[in-house]
Amino acid sequence: MPQIFVNYRTDDEEATATLVDRELSRVFGNENVFRASKSIGPGSRFPQELLTAVRRSSVLLAVIGPRWLEVGGSDGRSPLEDESDWTRREIQEALETGAIVIPLLVGGAKRLRSEDLPAEIRDLADCQYRRLNHRNADADLMRLADDLVKLLPELADTTRSNGCQSSSAMSDDNLAAEPDESGEARVRARVIKHRQRGGIGNLNGDFSGTFVSEPQGPVHTGSGHLYQAREQHLGPRISSDGGAVNYVADNHGEVQQGDRNGRPQDGQR
């Protein structure tokens, strides 16, 4: 049975409910997200299917747009005042069975007030809500998925098996401490985002090496002296004790080796 039940009104943000369902199904798996239009098959008795699904769900997401509380029909009453209204019945069932109920306010929808709700679902106004702005839909849906992983830790394995990962888990996994040969802990990055135009050293996720990007002057990474080459050579000479002599220009060209007198070796130019 699904863990997450998407509750919505057909004439208020039905398209948003579909968007939420698709994104959460991608992250958590189709079987873990219930939305009536998707999850109830032809010929099924929808009242029984709806009540069974909401009773067995751990979280109900109430998708609420600006028209959710509007008066409808010729009687001048809100649909929520009708005891047979399915949006109301699903929320009431979730509250009575102890499910976590999250109002998802879409666009300019205002925070609910208890005095605007029937007594049976008045507690909905006290439930902590989340917002979904279509201009920031990706970030808002990611935040919602993070919230659901924290509320339902059992979904974490399903999330990884679907090739997805919450942003909080990614931030924890990107850095790890590993012992080096001396037994000391060394930080290693599993995910590295950087801009590199040139450099000296290595950058393979291991911060133990030396990397110099776009230097503005002479660079010395060894233990010897720093010499200045004659004008006919490319640029500063970097020397370490007993090592080769390197000529480095503006960090965009070649790195050349020369002899101790500053002359390029055979085959180099």
Q: Tell me the structural class.
A: alpha/beta
State Rg. Answer: 31 Å
How much helix, percentage-wise, in residues?
Answer: 25-40%
- Largest sheet: spatial strand order: 2-1-3-4-5
Counting H and I runs of at least 4 residues, what is the number of helices? 7
Uncertain segments are 169-179, 185-196, 200-207, 231-235, 245-257
Query: Mean pLDDT score, rounded?
Result: 75
As a percent range, the share of strand residues is 15-25%
Order of helices and strands: EHEHHEHEEHHHEEEEEE
Report the sheet with the most strands, covering strand number, pairing sense and barrel closure: 5 strands, parallel
Q: What is the overall silhouette? A: globular
Q: Find the count of extended strands (DSSP E, 2+ residues).
A: 11
The rounded distance between the terminal residues' Cα atoms is 71 Å
